[in-house]
Amino acid sequence: MPNLTSKELMQLEDQLNGEALLVTKFKNYVNQCTDPELKSVLQQIAQKHQNHYATLMRHLQ
């Protein structure tokens, strides 16, 4: 794990929590949506935030 200060770790944790929340929200929106085009856009946004989350996690390894 990289040498991060406690403040940096807290900020990273906040960002991870934020990305996880966005993934959850957009997946819920996808499940509630009936319009195929909008559903596709929402799935892409959920995936984008999932990728952000994964990228942040890689920085902790």
Main attributes of the structure:
mainly alpha, 61 residues, elongated
Structure write-up:
- Helix 1 (6-32) runs antiparallel to helix 2 (36-59).
- This protein is mostly helical and 61 residues long.
- Helix content is 84%, strand content 0%.
Shape: elongated
Rg from Cα: 14 Å
Distance between the termini: 5 Å
The poorly predicted ranges are none
**Secondary-structure element sequence?**
HH
What is the count of DSSP helices, taking H or I runs of 4+ residues?
A: 2
What is the secondary structure topology, with strand pairs?
Layout: H1 6-32, H2 36-59
What's this, in brief?
The chain contains 2 helices and no strands. By secondary structure, the protein is mainly alpha-helical.
